[in-house]
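thread: overnight batch results

M.L. [08:02]
morning all. the overnight job finished for the chain we discussed friday. pasting input first so we're all looking at the same thing
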Amino acid sequence: MEKFQFSGKAVIQHLNTRKEGPDDEQELVLDLKLRAVTDYLVMAAFDEGLPAFAFFSNGAVRNKALGPITFTNELSDYRLEMVGSVFTAVRVKKFSIEPKDGFKVALTMLATFKPSPDEVARIAEFLQDDIDVLLSPQNGELGFGDSFSTNDASVDELYPEAIGLVRAEGKASISMLQRHLRIGYNRAARLLEMLEHGSFVSAAKADGTRDILGHEEAHA
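M.L. [08:03]
and the structure it wrote out:
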């Protein structure tokens, strides 16, 4: 599983405190269940094929009967910023992802860390509230390539249009995106990178061409 970064609004659904460690050296531990609705590209951190599997090119969920997808992976050495505090050595696990129409997913995860009693009391005040959360690897390693984050797709409103374009044309290139979307080179290159990370196009082959992945379209 590749490491990922989450930055955005999340709800504290549940919290639980417990003691951990030898009897004579027990430390306070907090298990915090967070839920957020975020961009679907977060799915690629769990499996690169998930975005194309879960969504049609228009952003509709492929299988409405599909329930939340759960993962047993555990991430360690994370940094969590929330409610005015910064927590380190955070472990993140019990991931659940549920696709939503509009290229969105409901993401649920459990963050475990060692706060002070005062910090626990402050966090408890925000139970069931929508708060700002930043969760990132302490070593700075991010998933989705060197500079790609879960929020990148939401920055460019042309991303869904780019998906439909490459599927309609059956090919993908920077020049094609520039021409059809009437944008500059840098923006087109970034969109193409996003399409690759979203599993809509393959990596460039030796001749520079790319395969279009997943041609199925949603039924009217």
